[in-house]
Amino acid sequence: MFDLADDGFATRRQTALFDDLLALFLAEGFSHLTLDDIAARLRCSKSTLYTLAGSKDELVRRVTIHFFKRATNAIEAILEQTRSERIAAYLIAVGEELAVASDVFMADLNAFAPAREVYEANTRAAAQRVRELIEEGVGNGAYRQVHASFAADLVATIMVRIQQREVRTATGLSDAEAYAELATLLTYGLRA
Hints:
Elements: H1 12-28, H2 35-42, H3 46-52, H4 56-80, H5 86-99, H6 103-111, H7 113-139, H8 148-163, H9 166-171, H10 175-190
Helix pairs in contact: 1-4, 4-5, 4-7, 5-7, 5-10, 6-7, 7-8, 8-10
GO molecular function: DNA-binding transcription factor activity; transcription cis-regulatory region binding
Keywords: DNA-binding, Transcription, Transcription regulation
Organism: Mycolicibacterium fluoranthenivorans
């Protein structure tokens, strides 16, 4: 996953509002909510929401960025503490971070282009991170000699299919479950 350099939050109150928005969206999705609904649920004014973003569309996009930034930071913290089976640890952590999202949120994310674009960019960055981990594992002898670019491309393909909800449609697996399965397949397939 990727790290968006700056959420652009100016105050603790704004950060807290983004956290509250994220919790609301993760639990219930966002497509059905109006700015009036959101303001009422967060017990703030619409003008307060407009300090966060100029429109509902931009607010959803920024909350999506906030979600993936938090996820990236949590995943990288786990990876820093992991010395073996790093690809599995990474992909399982990705799955765990996605597991907090309701099906409604994931469907809304996929249906709303600005949020989907954030997820797509995050998926590309995650695939690049997996490539780095494959190269690292091959380099230190943990993984057999494989063509890292090919393996990373293969992983990127399935990650995109997960993100686009194709894996869910084909298998019934949630995004989190699909990442756990991918971690298992990759780990055993790459071992030296």
